[in-house]
Structures are given as C-alpha cells and as structure tokens.
C-alpha cells in the first residue's frame, strides 16, 4: 500500500511523523526488490540546484525515470534564485509546469520561501540546515544491514552539519541511540538537539553530545563521518582542519566499536582527512550500498508525494 503524502513539502526530516518515516522506509525496501510499475508516468520533477551534485542528482533522476516520470534539471546560471529572479516568482512559474520541485540550495530560507509560494511539493535536496533525503537512504541501509533500527547505536564523528542534523532527527524518530562527537563550536545546534530529544521520547531513543570520538564509538553498531569542510565553507577550511585534528575515523577508532559495526559516509570523502583509505576500502564499509539506497528511498518519497490522483 502506497504511503500517501500527496501535496506535502519535505523541508526537514521532522516534517514526517515517526510512523510515516517507518512506512516510507518499508516502501523503499519493497521498491528495491520489485520491478517498477511506471506509476508516475506523465509526472514531471524539476531539479533546481544551486550547489554541485553527483549522488543526489543521480538519485533523483534515476528514481523519477524508473517510476515512469520525467526529470528536468536547472543549474544556478539558468535560474539565478533571488538574483536574476525572485524566489517566489520562480516557485510559481515552476509549479505551473511541474508536479514537484527538488531544491539544492545554500540557505534553508530559500526552501521555505519556495514552499510558501509553490502549489506543488517542494523537497529539500540539501540546504545549510538539513539533508533529509540523505538520511532516508542512510536509515534504509542500517535497517537492511542490521535488521532493525530501534536500539541501534549510531556514532557520528565530526561536524554537526546538515547531514548530522537530519540523521540525528531520523535516529530519534526510530528509537536509535545517537551519539555525536564534535569539537567545541562545531556541535549540533541546540534547537536540533531539543527537537531530537523530544522525538526520541516516544521511541525510547537517546541523543548524546560528546567531544571525544572514542567515547562516541565505544560499542557502537554504526560509525558515520562526513567531510570537515562542506560546500560553501571553503574559506574556513584551514581553521576547520586544525579544529578537527583527532577526529579522523581510522582502523584504531573502528576497533572501539562492536566487531560487527559498519562504517558509513555520505560522500564525497576526503580520504586522509576525516577517514582513512583503509577504512573506506575495508570490509566494514557499506558506503556503496548506502549510495545506491538513496535512490530507492527517493523513489519511495516521490511515489508517496506524487501517487496517481495527487
């Protein structure tokens, strides 16, 4: 049975209820293992990207086309959001031609303005605040490998960035024990932690902020890291590199986790910085399965948002 999210926006993972999130992941599991039925034939998805992308663009395009729909991509130069043309004007024009808009942008405010003026669903394909579609693929991967989400301990090592924020919220909604080790000044924002802790109460999960990576990884089922400097932060690269010394995921750190722990990274990775090549290429890494599962998670999301009759 298709989860019905018709007409809704997904700007944050917390825009979903906990049961909706689980239903979406179950739908993704089903879609991964069966032939597509081209249920979105005649539907059009517009990708509006202000930032470069490999996996996210690939996942959206493959997902939409595998479901029988069409996908149109617009680069920053073609649109000039807020510069060449106001965001609210762009939203209303695209909504007259397409059935959904996936936006990859520098500012969460841009997404929120798009959603206010768009009559079709707006999807966060990455912003400075969150990366919800990445978290969907991540949770699907953990579920596949570990057989469950509730009670799993996930250790995130590094910056409390957009990926960490969505993953923290998703972990809270599914009853996971989420630990994050970050240097001072790079921890998760207080409002995200407060929201995650509120969500965790219903499922028995736990959110823990730490500074020592070894404390976070001890006994963990999943070890996750991301780049120290994200897109748009290049001017801070030198300062960040100094701040994150000691936060590299190497074999010695992985050895602190459970013997059957898996390693995850949303990619692209800066091998030799936040993670060693040995870990990336090691038997505990599930990064390629993780990259593939993003596509299946997005298929489930698009089908739920754009199901026939929507």
Please tell me about this protein's structure.
The protein has 13 helices and nine strands. 50% of the residues are buried. The protein has 310 residues and is an alpha/beta fold. It has two domains: 13-130 and 294-306, Aspartate/ornithine carbamoyltransferase (Rossmann fold); 133-290, Aspartate/ornithine carbamoyltransferase (Rossmann fold), CATH 3.40.50.
SSE inventory with pairings:
Layout: H1 18-32, E1 44-49, H2 55-66, E2 70-74, H3 76-79, H4 87-95, E3 100-104, H5 108-117, E4 122-124, H6 132-146, E5 153-157, H7 162-173, E6 177-181, H8 190-203, E7 206-210, H9 213-217, E8 222-225, H10 237-243, H11 251-254, E9 262-265, H12 277-280, H13 287-306
Parallel strand pairs: 1-2, 1-3, 3-4, 5-6, 5-8, 6-7, 8-9
Helix pairs in contact: 1-6, 1-13, 2-13, 4-5, 6-7, 6-13, 7-8
């Amino acid at each position: 049975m298709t989860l019905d999210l018709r007409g809704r926006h997904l700007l944050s993972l917390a825009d979903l209820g906990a049961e909706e999130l689980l239903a979406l992941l179950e739908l993704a599991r089903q879609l991964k293992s069966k032939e597509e039925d081209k249920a979105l034939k005649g539907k059009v998805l517009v990708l509006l990207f202000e930032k470069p992308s490999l996996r996210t663009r690939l996942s959206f395009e493959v997902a939409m086309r595998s479901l029988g729909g069409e996908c149109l991509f617009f680069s920053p130069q073609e649109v000039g959001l807020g510069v060449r043309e106001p965001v609210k004007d762009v939203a209303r024009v695209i909504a007259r031609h397409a059935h959904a808009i996936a936006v990859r942008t520098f500012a969460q405010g841009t997404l929120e303005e798009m959603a206010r003026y768009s009559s079709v669903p707006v999807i966060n394909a990455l912003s400075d605040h969150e990366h919800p579609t990445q978290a969907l693929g991540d949770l699907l991967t953990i579920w596949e490998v570990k057989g469950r989400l509730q009670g799993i301990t996930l250790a995130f090592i590094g910056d409390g960035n957009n990926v960490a924020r969505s993953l923290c919220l998703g972990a809270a909604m599914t009853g996971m024990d989420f630990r994050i080790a970050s240097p001072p000044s790079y921890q998760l924002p207080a409002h995200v932690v407060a929201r995650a802790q509120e969500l965790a109460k219903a499922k028995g999960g736990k959110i823990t902020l730490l500074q020592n990576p070894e404390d976070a990884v001890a006994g963990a089922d999943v070890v996750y890291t991301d780049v120290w400097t994200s897109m748009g932060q290049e001017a801070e690269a030198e300062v960040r590199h100094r701040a994150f010394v000691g936060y590299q995921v190497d074999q010695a750190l992985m050895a602190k986790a459970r013997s059957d722990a898996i390693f995850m990274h949303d990619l692209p990775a800066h091998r030799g910085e936040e993670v060693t090549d040995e870990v990336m290429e090691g038997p505990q890494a599930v990064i390629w399965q993780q990259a593939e599962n993003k596509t299946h998670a997005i298929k489930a999301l698009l089908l739920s948002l754009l199901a026939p009759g929507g």
